[in-house]
Amino acid sequence: MELYWIRHGMTKGNAERRYVGGRTDERLAEAGKKEIERRVALGLYPQADTVFVSPMKRCRETAAIIYPDAVWTTVEGFRECDFGLFENKNEEELKGLAFYEDWIHADEGAAFPGGESPALFTERCVKALQELAGSGKIGDRAAFVVHGGVIMSILSTLDEKQKGFYGYYAENGWGYRCRMTWENGKMVIRDCQPLHNLPMG
């Protein structure tokens, strides 16, 4: 199977470098929408047999532009991380706040104050993909229009190259093409390539 992981287009919060998580259901910024439309016109996105999306508006709007004729499946497990008290704030607004400073100096992997931990977020995302794969709904070429955190969590866990969480960062509107197989009953993802490096033909 080929899996296409596509991060949603840019939002106002993204442009302002905010923690735009699962509590902030903002739409695409006009500039973000236009950039996705431009790439679609240039044929920069792969065709897909099935399309899966996060329930958040920014992902649904992106999917509507890239795959206007597709019938999507909304996957609750692909909702962005709950950033708790950080939600919709940027570093400048958080600097000096006690809960932020405590989190910065906490052990790696500490939960966001009032929100999810990276481990629980990753577990949720991976479980959602495994359930889809086990249901047989994915098909030969599947597109996932989701959040940057979802892409990084899933690929850093399942890709055989194990490049680390930030090794799978994707700019808004970009992502990865990967191949997925089952080996000894275990899901394996390999050959992850950035979408913008691939000839779409």
Which features characterize this protein?
single chain, 201 residues, alpha/beta, six-stranded mixed beta sheet, 7 helices, globular
Low-pLDDT segments: none
E-strand count: 6
Beta-strand residue percentage: 15-25%
Q: Over the alpha carbons, how many angstroms does the gyration radius reach?
A: 17 Å
> Fraction of residues in helices?
25-40%
Approximate shape: globular
Kindly report the spatial arrangement of strands forming the biggest sheet.
Answer: 3-2-4-1-5-6
Derived from helix and strand composition plus strand pairing, the structural class reads alpha/beta
- Characterize the biggest β-sheet: 6 strands, mixed
The helix/strand series, from N terminus to C terminus, equals: EHHEHEHHHEHEE
Mean model confidence by pLDDT: 93
Assembly form of the protein: single chain
Task: Tell me what you see in this structure.
This protein is of the alpha/beta class. It has seven helices and six strands. It has helices at residues 12-15, 30-41, 57-66, 91-94, 98-104, 118-135, 148-158, and strands spanning 2-7, 50-53, 72-74, 141-146, 175-183, 186-194. Helix 3 links the parallel strand 2 (50-53) and strand 3 (72-74). Helix 2 (30-41) packs parallel to helix 3 (57-66) and helix 6 (118-135) crosses helix 7.
Layout: helices, strands, pairs:
Blueprint: E1 2-7, H1 12-15, H2 30-41, E2 50-53, H3 57-66, E3 72-74, H4 91-94, H5 98-104, H6 118-135, E4 141-146, H7 148-158, E5 175-183, E6 186-194
Parallel strand pairs: 1-4, 2-3, 2-4
Antiparallel strand pairs: 1-5, 5-6
Helix pairs in contact: 2-3, 6-7
